Amino acid sequence: MSDRHLVKSKNVLVMEIVGTAFIIFLGSALHFTNALSGNQPLVAFFSAVNEAVWEHLKLAFWPSLLWVLIEFYPLRKMTNNFLPAKAIGTYVMVVFIPIVFYSYTPFTGRSVFQIDITTFVVAVVIGQVVSYKLMQKKKPPKFANIISIIALILLTVLFVVFTFFPPHLSPFQDPNTGQYGI
Length: 182
What we know:
Low-confidence stretches: 1-7
Distance between the termini: 52 Å
Order of helices and strands: HHHHHH
């Protein structure tokens, strides 16, 4: 491995470590921003509006998407497949959380705060590690960038729409109130 490649790899690793802290910090803050805003509809787009599993996925998604935008310019030329790696990493975060939640709650009969927080942190770490590892792989076909952008836009639209018009399914229901969405 060349010295130049090592420097690039180190820079990418540093950005992903900083991104992990950024996503965890901002995601944790977003749990409270809707209530602190007085339930403003604009804030509801990116904040958890209730205790539903779906709403808590926003805490990983929105900071992750923001981090993708922040690191796009500096990393796009340092990596082989920035957009596919970040899209997959973001999806890993959003999929990991409900898998763990719905795996442990049948045994506990309820949500356990400490497990949920740990799950969020682990999901972010795994998503960032997956992104980092994929950025090291060989360059994908051009259409991979287009698919990645479409995948991130799709998830963005779903989070916005389902905040205000959630399906009446378990992941969208607040277990405390029985309500859906706002």
